[in-house]
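Sharing a chain and its predicted structure for anyone who wants a worked example. Both blocks are below, sequence first, tokens second.
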Amino acid sequence: MTDHEYEQRVIAVLISTHPGWYYEQRDLPGLPRWWATRYCPLRPDQRKAGARDVLGRTTLHGLVSALARHDEILHRLRY
């Protein structure tokens, strides 16, 4: 399996497990490579608890971890 095929499989899993996000890869110097942007904006109380509308990480694995932590934040708020 190539790196590209692996990345596409991980993105497919993210789409099925975190459907409220738009995923993209950007190759811009000095910026995170992988991005997830929420389709629906968060409420102020969710932002105050640490949830974000946009997550960016340098690795796909880092983005997966960030989304899992984000779910924990929203779960604690009973979102």
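Comments welcome. DSSP finds three helices and three strands in the chain.
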